[in-house]
Amino acid sequence: MSFTSIISAIGNNSSIYPLLVRDCGIEVPTKVYLTYKENENDKEIQKLATRERFLDEYIGSAIWLGAIPVIDKISNKIIQRKGYNPDINLKLLKEEQYQGLEYNIKKFEKIVPDVVKDLKKLRGEKAQNAYRIMLGSKFLAATIIPIALIGFILPKMIFASSAKKIEELRRAKQDKQNAPARTALPTGRSTSFTGNIMSTLANFSTKEKMEVIDGGYAFGRIATARKGPDGNRNEAIDIAFKMAGMMYLNYLAPEQIEKGLNFITKKLFKLTTNLDPLMLADKEFVEQIKDGKLSLPKSDNAKDLLDFVDNNPKSLFVKYADKFEKVKMLDSGIRDPRAYVNIKKLAEFKKDIEEFAKSAIKSEQIKGFAKKVKWIKTINILANVGLSSFLLAYCLPKTQFAFRKLVTGSELEPGIVNANMKKSA
Known about the structure:
Layout: H1 3-10, H2 17-38, H3 43-81, H4 101-108, H5 113-120, H6 125-177, H7 195-202, H8 206-223, H9 234-269, H10 277-280, H11 283-290, H12 302-311, H13 316-323, H14 343-363, H15 366-408, H16 414-424
Helix pairs in contact: 1-15, 2-3, 2-15, 3-6, 3-8, 4-5, 6-7, 6-8, 6-16, 8-9, 9-15, 14-15
Keywords: Membrane, Transmembrane, Transmembrane helix
Transmembrane segments: 130-154
C-alpha cells in the first residue's frame, strides 16, 4: 500500500480507518499509561487500575472492531439460506423516479438478468416485510451482542477479577501483620445522582453501527459501575464524563476539525481540498483536465447522474465514484441494480471535481497545482488525525482526572477505591 493510499484511508472520516488509528494505535496505549501515572500515589490501586484499564481497553477494542464483520457475515449466510440477497438496499423498496425495485428490474433485466433475479424475489408485500425483518434483525444482532459483551459482561468479569485480586492483597497484608488490616484509602466525597426506521437502521454503515455500540457500551458501563459502601456513584459519574467526551471526540470532532482545516486552507491559500489524495495523485486525471477531456455528468439531477454512470462505466468519474462508495459497480462494469445511489452525495462529488478542475485550469500550471493541493490535503489529514488523537488520548483523560478530583476529592480510580472499601468494611 502506497503512502497516498494510507493517507486516503485515514482521511476518510466516513470509514473506520481513522477510528482504528486513533483507538488502537494512539488512544488505548496512552490511556493505559496515563492511568498508571494518575494512580501512582497508591501502588496497590495503581497496579489494579492499570490492569483494569489494560483489559478493558484492549478486549473492548477487539470486540468493538471484530464483532460487526463477524456477525454481519453470519447474518448474511442466514439471509441467503432464506432465499434472499442481503446486498439489496431497503431504500429501493420505496420507488423513486429514476431508481427503485420495479424501475431497476425493468432497466437492468436484459443487461444483468442473474442479478435482477434477486430483486424479483422481493416483489410483493409479504416478501418485502420478511426481508425488512431479516435486515433489521441483522442490525440488532450486530449492535446488541457487542453492547452486551463490552457494556455489561466484560465489566462484570473485570470487576470480579479485581475483587479477587483485592482480596488476595488484603489477605497477604493480614498474614504479614498477623492482624486484621484495613487498607488506608481516601474515601472521597459521596455523590448520588417501523418501515422507514427499519430501512434506516438496516442501512447503517459499519462506522454508524460502531456509534450505536459505543452508545450502548456507555450505558452498560454506567449501569454496571461499582457503588461505594456509602452508596456513592463516583465511578458511574467518572465513566459518564469519559464516555461523553470519547463519543464526541471520536465521531463529531474529526469532521468538525476537517471542515475547519478546509476553511483555513481556502482562506489562506485560496484552495479547495475536498478531493481525495488518490485522485489528486492520478496522472490520468490531471492529464484529462489539462487536455480538456475530463468527462462529467451534464447536470446534478438524478437522471443525468445515473445515465452518465450507466453509459460511461470506464470514465474516471465512475471509477472514483465506485471507489469512494458513491455508486456500486459490478465486476462487469454495470451499475449494481441492488444498490441505492445517494444522488445528493454523487452530485456533491461531481461539484468537487468541477471546482478543482476550474481552479487547476485557472492556475495555468495544472500538474504543479495538483501536487500542491495533494500535499496540503495530506497535511490537513495528518493534522486532523494528530489533533483529534491528542484530544482523545491525552486531553480527555487529563480532563477526566481533574473532573474526578473535583467530584471525589481524590485522583485514584473511583471503582477500585469503592471495591477496596467494600472489602475492607
